[in-house]
Amino acid sequence: MSKQKPYPEYRRKLGPGWWLSNSHFTQYMIREWTSFFVAVFSLIYIYELSLFATGQKGSALALMKNPGIITFNIVALAFTLYHAFTWFYLIGKVQPIKMGKTKSKPWQALMLNIVLLVILSYTVIWILVLRSG
Amino acid sequence: MSQDIATIRVTRYRPEKDGEPYFQDYKVPYRKDMVVLDALNYIKANLDGTLTYRWSCRMGVCGSCGANVDGVPKLTCASFLHDFRGRTIKVEPLPNFPVIKDLVVNMDDFMHKLVEIKPWIIREKESPPEEGEYRQRAEELERYAQFSSCINCMLCYSACPVYGLNEKFLGPAATALAYRYIQDSRDQGKDVRFPIVHELEGVWECTLVGECSVVCPKGVDPMLAIQKTKILGATNALKSLLMPRGGK
Predict the structure, then answer these.
(1) What CATH number has the domain bearing residue A113?
(2) B-proximal residues of A, 81-100, CB under 8 Å
């Protein structure tokens, strides 16, 4: 009996627009993109610090006041907050805290982390800016 | 009971004839209590006997009737037709798997991964049967109970873009099952499974998309199992680095 050759299987590949097919994928991809904005912000920040360090205070301040840089900082802040809030929510999903017979919900972790973020941010601002002012 | 008509748009792929899959529409009369699987069975029995798909229990237990229904991986036996009222229902084979025929996909890769993680209780030394069963307290069972509900339907693999982009990734269900045995107080196979789940294409490949847990029809949370396995691995690595005799 001759051995029959198996019929070919149809293989599908994910196209470059796969992350647009589902709102969860899109949200995930936006979270991944936040790293780009954080990286660019860090590079600009390091450059500004280097200007200060080399005595070019005027250039550093001019760069900080540049409308393009301010707009970018606002966009980067929005992306960073989006990253932080979605991660806070995921922390609640991955590490729920046992409370008696029930477990904490992800939104509780999100709220708790937001409160901690506000307290910590205010403490840092108070130490660095408000205390000396 | 009144009957409406649903339009079911099914992927057809006949490897002996077709180079590529195509869609074929069928009109199916349905009642409120009918599911997508009932519609496929109606097509097979009354309209087109060549339509090919997998199914068995019709009650969300066997996990064999998974398909992409309206763009989302679902069990066709648990997707009611009236939920799609007024629009064409697209039924496609599960994404991320090669298509053998129509809605039937090749599951070999998943089956190999399932065996790879050794989904059974491993003992260093088996006790003789006369000593009785390995007993377990309720709180010990609770540590892994949800992960033992997996029915191997592969919906999580179909929903996972990481697996879609890299089929070497161990994937959600296999990791959830590995974690289920790692957490089982009767099991002593942690050292055997750890190298498998922590290899290059193991848990660390997961980038936390989370869609695997969204589509699971049994309420299993594979994303949680993968992250918990990462935590266990990182803790173990730290212990072996910092503590005498690897913290054992």
Answers:
(1) 1.20.1300.10
(2) 90, 93-95
pLDDT at B1: 53
**Residue B128 sits in the same domain as residue B172:** yes
The pLDDT of residue B199: 87
- In the β-sheet with B66-69, what is the strand arrangement from edge to edge? B22-30, B4-12, B89-92, B66-69, B72-75
Which one has a higher pLDDT value, A96 or A84? A84
pLDDT at position A108 over 60: yes
For residues B17 and B127, state if they share a domain.
Answer: no
Last residue of a domain, one of B86, B105, B124: B105
* pLDDT for res B18: 85
Partner A contacted by B171 (CB < 8 A): no
- Interface with chain B: mutation pick from A94, A97, A103, A104, highest number of B CBs within 10 Å: A94
> Per the CB < 8 Å rule, is B210 touching A93?
yes
Domain membership of residue A8 (yes or no) is no
What distance in Å separates the CA atoms of residue B131 and residue B160, rounded to the nearest whole number? 44
CA distances (Å), B132 to each of B45, B127, B129, B185, in order? Answer: 51, 8, 6, 16
Assess A107–B contact: CB distance below 8 Å, yes or no: no
The single residue listed with the structure tokens 């503590």 is B243
Give the closest-approach CA distance of B42 to chain A in angstroms. Answer: 26
CB B74 within 8 A of CB B154: no
A1: pLDDT strictly greater than 60 = no
ipTM of the complex: 0.83
Looking at the structure of chain B, the number of domains it has is: 2
Domain ranges, residue B59: 4-105
Average pLDDT in chain B: 94
Task: Decide if B20 and A10 are in contact by the 8 Å CB cutoff.
Answer: yes
Q: What is the mean pLDDT of residues A93-98?
A: 80
